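Quick one: structure for this chain?
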Amino acid sequence: MGMNRIEILSCPLNVDKAVEFVTSPTSGAISMFIGMTRNNFDGKKVIKLQYEAYTSMAEKELNKICQHIREKWTVEHICIYHRIGQVIYDIVNILEVPVTEASVVIAVSSPHRQESLEAVHYAIDSLKASVPIWKKEIYDEGDSIWKENKECHWTVTT
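Got it. Here's what it folds into:
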């Protein structure tokens, strides 16, 4: 039986460690998703992201995602890292992820490529829909906006 590694971190994410964790002599494929902070959205210049998380519930939801993956596909190991940023002011406790840095890394190994590819796709979509981690985009003009995940099941649309 494969292993899962779930981590919510306040430091930069290490892609190599994710690959190392999921590597297995019985797997012929490792599929990955790396979500990066980009420098633009809707014509505005993004300078950084801020994250807030309900960490204990987020970890439970990420473990459920791993369980569902194992029910649907034949996979070996699953690794999901999500970054909530760095503490840049001890008093204010602002958590940031700068442009070009990863906020999420998902790696899945499997005997054949199709299973790991589908599992990674499922993992990121499920993460966006059910994991209580919220993102705020900070723009160069000084304004900001909390981003709503369109996939989120608790979002109410009118």
